[in-house]
Amino acid sequence: MRFTPEELEAARDRVVPDVVAGGLRVLFCGINPGLMTAVTGHHFARPGNRFWPVLHAAGFTPRVFRPAEQGELLDHGLGITNVVARPTARADELTAEEYREGGRLLAEKVARLRPHWLAVAGVTAYRVAFDDKRAAIGPQERTLGATRIWALPNPSGLNAHWTLATMAEEYGRLRAAAFADS
């Protein structure tokens, strides 16, 4: 799909609905919706984003889902939300205050939905949102109630030092932990 710059800019005010249900195994959490996501209403919709291929390569999905098939994640015990709801062209358009407020709202959402794992796709976003400057990729000591937290590499194509293979390995570690008892 191709959108004009005007169509993308017009999407800055759109709300992208979460893909959630109570008791999910993993609630994936992006930084914030990109403009392509806002235009389409589908998470991780930008063609260069590796989220959908990584989910499949890590064993979360039986095939590579298209962003328009995001609702099928619920059948696999998975969901999607964001730290910050405001769509932007780039994550660096967000303020530290937006991240902190997003972290507060995310904690409320997690308390309501009670996923087994919250997987934040972007360790820097996690650090700012939850004021944890030393956080690294992997499972975190912090929990939100009974929900464990895992910081994942951001699947954006701009995150070039993580390859599809190395991301799939890290996401696969989360999958093994999240589905260990099933």
> How many E strands?
5
State the separation between the terminal residues, measured CA to CA. Answer: 38 Å
Assign the structural class, choosing from mainly alpha, mainly beta, alpha/beta, alpha+beta, or little secondary structure: alpha/beta
- Counting DSSP H or I runs of 4 or more residues, the number of helices is 6
The chain-level mean pLDDT equals 94
State the strand order across the main sheet.
2-1-3-5-4
The quaternary organization reads as single chain
- How many whole angstroms does the radius of gyration measure? 15 Å
Low-pLDDT ranges: none
Question: What is the element string, with H for helices and E for strands?
Answer: HEHHEHEHEEH
Major sheet size, sense and barrel closure: 5 strands, mixed
Cα shape? globular
* Strand-residue proportion: 15-25%
Helix content: 25-40%
Folded structure, characterized:
With 182 residues, the protein is of the alpha/beta class. Helices cover 32% and strands 15% of the residues. The protein has helices at residues 5-10, 35-40, 51-57, 96-113, 123-129, 164-178, and strands spanning 26-30, 78-82, 117-121, 138-144, 147-152. It has a 5-stranded mixed sheet with strand order 2-1-3-5-4. A hairpin with a 2-residue loop joins β4 (138-144) and β5 (147-152). The model has no long low-confidence stretch (mean pLDDT 94).
Task: Give me a quick take on this structure.
By secondary structure, the chain is an alpha/beta fold.
